[in-house]
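Work package 3, deliverable 3.1, input record:
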Amino acid sequence: MRRGGEDPRPGLATDDALRAITDTFRSVSAGDFESRVPPIGDTETAIATRTAVNGLLDRVDAFVREAGAASAAAAEGRFYRRFLTTGLQGAFRSSAEQVNQSLDAMSRNAARISQADLARLSLADELESAVLTVSEQVATAATQMGASANGLASFARGAISDAERGLETVTSLRAASDQIRDAVDLINQVASQTRLLALNATIEAARAGSAGKGFAVVASEVKTLANETTSSSEEIMGQVSTVQQAAADAVGVLEGVSRSFREISDLIDGIAVAVDGGAAAGTTGLSQLAEVLRAEVSRFVATIRSS
Amino acid sequence: MRATEVRPTGVERTFGENEMIVTKTDQRGVITYANDLFLQISALREDEAIGRPHNVIRHPDMPRAVFKLLWDVLAERREIFAYVLNLAADGAHYWVLAHVTPSYDGAGRVVGYHSNRRRPAPAAITAVSDLYARLRTAEARAASPRDAVQAGWQALGNELRERGQEYDELVWSLTNGSAR
Ligand SMILES: Cc1cc2nc3c(=O)[nH]c(=O)nc-3n(C[C@H](O)[C@H](O)[C@H](O)COP(=O)(O)O)c2cc1C
């Protein structure tokens, strides 16, 4: 600039030029990249200076625009939009390449993350379909179990009432055999009185001598009949005792059977509560639980999908 | 003044890998700043460039659809990369990879536009010339200039749909693919 030999007022021209450059630098320093050095003279030096200064500003302008736009694009996931290094030299270029390496790393990470997202989504799909299948199967099984439990419960109720009916029958059998015993007692009394009568008749017949001979035969027949009656009665008594013993055994067995079926019935009620849920105590049934599980997993899967 | 007044000579001009052609315009596309390389390669004096609409270097082989896209994208305050063929005042032509961006003031208002142009890779030029020729053919078939923009725009849309790319993705695939 000092070589402005042809210029009649070289100092003043240089001052104006420097002022113009200073103004531009102040604007650009303040972030106004629209500012450039206007023409500052026709000398070779003036032109070269202006070109050099504006060239520098153009490079800085380009770098700033690229840096902003490239990182904005990366933030939007448009990783193909790189920092365009063409036209930049030296530190401008190496910094730009550094930015591109960072963008590459971001892009790799983004790819990894989206891969992980995909894996997570497919995991969610699998979980959902598995839980859906399981809960459907549980619901089906619960329905079947409920039906079976109902069947078993009514079967048990039937068995209990059968056993109770059996008990009644056996009890009436016992009453009947008691009546038989009374009747046999009566027959026994009659037989022993008959025997007594036959004895007296035999004595009276002996006393009547030959006239009582026929009667003695009759009295002896009567005695034999009375004896046979007694022995038959004893046999009957024996049979009745056996029947009564058997009835007592049957009562024990039937009572055991009906107790067992009551226990079974309670167990079946327990199963029904587990399957269908009890109205009391707020217990949740198996099929409701399966539904709750399915709903929870759906919510979980939805969260996973949307995050 | 329209660039069509200059007759293309077929002479191709190129510039260096480390060089950048820079212009700034106001919001209508009137040139407010041009760097020395722009003036030199466009064969314009500074006073011929400043204050002139940017179509001063428009080449007749450029499809209208590309400039429609450029202005549409800028209107959305977005950046655009485009391969552009320009016509110098002396009839020579040169290809650039242009990066056009809005310029904002401190309050975030658009005050104008800025274009940085880099030297494109030869392979990218070949691919883009073919694409642009197809767009121009579509535009040439149209009856009126307005129909021409529409026809070229549709042809560009079809080409991009076929590739499954946006225009900037296409530009970047050419740029990343050949210039790295
Ligand atoms: C910052 C900026 C730079 C531009 N650079 C060019 C360019 O280098 N070549 C060009 O033909 N058009 C360029 N244009 C687009 C022109 O303004 C114009 O739209 C285009 O030349 C088409 O002109 P036409 O509508 O008269 O056909 C640029 C526009 C802006 C905003």
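Chain A has two domains: 4-113, 129-306.
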